[in-house]
Fold:
Amino acid sequence: MGNKQENGTILERQAQKLKPPSMYQVILLNDDYTPMEFVVAIVQEYFNKDRETAMQIMLKVHRDGKGICGVYSKDIALTKVELVLTHARKAGHPLQCVMEEV
Structure:
Protein backbone atom coordinates (compact mmCIF):
# COMPACT_ATOMS: atom_id res chain seq x y z
CA MET A 1 0.00 0.00 0.00
CA GLY A 2 2.85 2.38 0.73
CA ASN A 3 3.89 2.22 -2.91
CA LYS A 4 0.46 3.26 -4.17
CA GLN A 5 0.49 6.32 -1.94
CA GLU A 6 3.98 7.22 -3.11
CA ASN A 7 2.98 6.68 -6.73
CA GLY A 8 -0.07 8.88 -6.21
CA THR A 9 2.13 11.62 -4.82
CA ILE A 10 4.55 11.30 -7.73
CA LEU A 11 1.69 11.45 -10.23
CA GLU A 12 0.27 14.50 -8.47
CA ARG A 13 3.67 16.20 -8.67
CA GLN A 14 3.95 15.36 -12.36
CA ALA A 15 0.46 16.74 -13.00
CA GLN A 16 1.43 19.98 -11.23
CA LYS A 17 4.56 20.27 -13.39
CA LEU A 18 2.46 19.93 -16.55
CA LYS A 19 0.00 22.62 -15.48
CA PRO A 20 0.56 25.82 -17.48
CA PRO A 21 1.86 28.79 -15.49
CA SER A 22 -0.65 31.24 -14.09
CA MET A 23 -1.24 34.35 -16.17
CA TYR A 24 -1.82 37.86 -14.86
CA GLN A 25 -3.75 40.84 -16.18
CA VAL A 26 -1.98 44.17 -15.90
CA ILE A 27 -4.58 46.82 -15.10
CA LEU A 28 -4.47 50.61 -14.96
CA LEU A 29 -6.76 52.28 -12.41
CA ASN A 30 -8.51 55.60 -12.87
CA ASP A 31 -7.70 58.70 -10.84
CA ASP A 32 -8.74 62.33 -11.16
CA TYR A 33 -5.23 63.72 -11.74
CA THR A 34 -3.26 61.75 -14.33
CA PRO A 35 -3.68 63.33 -17.78
CA MET A 36 -5.38 61.15 -20.39
CA GLU A 37 -2.54 61.75 -22.85
CA PHE A 38 -0.03 60.46 -20.30
CA VAL A 39 -2.06 57.24 -19.91
CA VAL A 40 -2.14 56.81 -23.70
CA ALA A 41 1.66 57.27 -23.85
CA ILE A 42 2.16 54.71 -21.03
CA VAL A 43 -0.01 52.13 -22.81
CA GLN A 44 1.85 52.66 -26.08
CA GLU A 45 5.31 52.54 -24.51
CA TYR A 46 4.97 49.70 -21.99
CA PHE A 47 2.30 47.54 -23.61
CA ASN A 48 3.26 48.00 -27.28
CA LYS A 49 -0.22 49.12 -28.36
CA ASP A 50 -0.90 51.35 -31.33
CA ARG A 51 -2.32 54.80 -30.63
CA GLU A 52 -5.93 53.81 -31.40
CA THR A 53 -5.82 50.80 -29.07
CA ALA A 54 -4.10 52.87 -26.38
CA MET A 55 -6.87 55.48 -26.66
CA GLN A 56 -9.53 52.75 -26.25
CA ILE A 57 -7.80 51.40 -23.13
CA MET A 58 -7.44 54.92 -21.69
CA LEU A 59 -11.15 55.60 -22.28
CA LYS A 60 -12.05 52.30 -20.60
CA VAL A 61 -9.95 53.32 -17.58
CA HIS A 62 -11.64 56.74 -17.58
CA ARG A 63 -15.21 55.41 -17.94
CA ASP A 64 -15.10 52.13 -16.02
CA GLY A 65 -12.43 52.90 -13.42
CA LYS A 66 -9.97 50.35 -14.77
CA GLY A 67 -8.66 48.95 -18.02
CA ILE A 68 -6.71 45.83 -18.90
CA CYS A 69 -3.49 46.53 -20.78
CA GLY A 70 -2.43 42.94 -21.36
CA VAL A 71 -2.06 39.43 -19.96
CA TYR A 72 1.39 38.11 -19.10
CA SER A 73 3.31 35.57 -17.07
CA LYS A 74 3.86 36.59 -13.45
CA ASP A 75 7.42 37.90 -13.89
CA ILE A 76 6.60 39.97 -16.95
CA ALA A 77 3.41 41.36 -15.39
CA LEU A 78 5.29 42.34 -12.22
CA THR A 79 8.00 44.05 -14.26
CA LYS A 80 5.45 46.00 -16.30
CA VAL A 81 3.65 47.15 -13.13
CA GLU A 82 6.94 48.35 -11.62
CA LEU A 83 7.99 50.16 -14.82
CA VAL A 84 4.64 51.95 -15.14
CA LEU A 85 4.59 53.00 -11.48
CA THR A 86 8.19 54.25 -11.63
CA HIS A 87 7.52 56.24 -14.81
CA ALA A 88 4.32 57.75 -13.39
CA ARG A 89 5.98 58.80 -10.12
CA LYS A 90 8.94 60.36 -11.93
CA ALA A 91 6.45 62.34 -14.03
CA GLY A 92 4.58 63.39 -10.86
CA HIS A 93 1.39 61.45 -11.57
CA PRO A 94 -0.52 59.22 -9.12
CA LEU A 95 -1.42 56.63 -11.80
CA GLN A 96 -1.96 53.19 -10.27
CA CYS A 97 -1.09 49.95 -12.03
CA VAL A 98 -1.87 46.52 -10.57
CA MET A 99 -1.87 42.89 -11.61
CA GLU A 100 -4.53 40.24 -11.04
CA GLU A 101 -4.35 36.52 -11.67
CA VAL A 102 -6.55 35.46 -14.58
The chain is about 60% helix and 20% strand.
